[in-house]
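Figure-free illustration: sequence to structure, shown twice.
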Amino acid sequence: MAIVVGLLSTAEGQAALAAAKREAQERSVPLTVVVTRDDGGPERQAVEDDLASSGLVFSVVGGTGDLAEDLVRTAHDAGAELIVVGLRRRSPVGKLILGSGAQRILLEAPCPVLAVKP
């Protein structure tokens, strides 16, 4: 069992990461962080350093660039007990034109999904 979250530099992504970290600590389960573009950048290193200093068991995995697909696949592969996602407010037209990654995650997830706002 694990908690799965995506690594995004947005406020929503940071809120999701903080919530996922809390959930993993409270449940005493590993945290799996999905990096949509596995470039080894400074943000990834900072997150890895923070997680290592927290004492959490964690892994960082690369993704394809489609965060919804990556989170669902990783949750399935890891036997996750929870996916954590950050949400932002969007207009009905924005949802229609852009689609909704969060909706895809909610519909396709093999486990419960915790949605957080910044």
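We now fold a second protein in the same way, so the two outputs can be compared directly.
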Amino acid sequence: MEFLKRAILRIASTPDARLSELPRLHRRLLLPILSSASALYRLSLLLRRCRRLLLSPHRVSRLPVPVISVGNVTWGGNGKTPMVELIARFFDECGVAPLVLTRGYAGGDEAKMLKRHLQDTSAIIGIGANRAATAASLLNKHGYTDACRVLCMEDHTLPHKFGPHSDNGKVGVVILDDGMQHWSLLRNVEIVMVNSMMPWGNSHLIPRGPLREPLSALGRADILVIHHADLVSDMQLKIIESTVLYICATLPMFFSRLVPSHLFGVKNPHSRFPLTMLNNSAVLCVSGIGFPYAFFHAVRELGPLHVGRLDFLDHHPFKASDIQLIREKAAKLAADYNKETVVVVTEKDYDRNPHILGEIDDINVLVLCSSLQIMPLEGKSEDDFRMKLKELLIRTKSAP
């Protein structure tokens, strides 16, 4: 199964013009099967769209507060969850309590990370596959208020101007984590994240490629954010922009990156260590995420003497054999560089595997914490992003 998953990932990242570089087994056996499966998937998307158009309005849930969807058109590594956190903090600073809805699948690592990051805010985290039902239950429990009333007031961007828990913690806005393909809830704003390092893969639908929808789906977006914009050239950014603007010429675009903030120990998530702790050390990066290169690059920029990698598949649950492999890789690095090796994992990997990682006593295992930042590119800052979000919410609120 591991071999099959890696083979599919390799095919999905290989452009059609370079298919000859794939192993013969991939080309002769897997490629035809995946192409047929993608054709069936395309048909299912068409049927879902027809069903959605034919559904009467009462079959789609409309919440009494604005709904912001954060999603993507490809799988993995697009920065959706860090963007959800940034938006939740924005509303908390405005005095509006946000309700974050997440599916909590594959170990619930995103939900656990959001809970830890937002524990000092008024944010409420709702977990469940049926997000309409989850939202209804939590809105009934906490109550709801008019977020647009607060956003329309002057100087709303001042931190906690209206109190950190305005209206006694009543929910003012709902944020859907990974919500672009979730049709059961009407949304006011659609934010789409794009991974600049592999924006469309081989441009085929899953499982032949990484696209969850055809690129024409970008036309539904209200805001597009090009993530990891600090890791690619200006030319690559321009190519992505051109593709997007060909589909939707007026779509507002922003640029983001992940910025490391601190480290903590796997045995104590409340600990906090400076990033300089990795200076002049040998580090082994261990990750099971959708796009491990960005994590590896971030650690390498912190100044270690050497950085090694051990990549697992996205959402991989660590087993005893994996821990033994980590020990072996760390021991080899220590011998090669005559330094004690520090193992660094991502927050998602920690939240998915806290117990087994916490049982490691013979290696120093740290967790790297990062947050999303809107980059000041092309004259667009984080303040501009917030103002655009506010503008869209107020516009949809006033629409008939």
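Summary for the second example: The longest helix spans residues 24-54.
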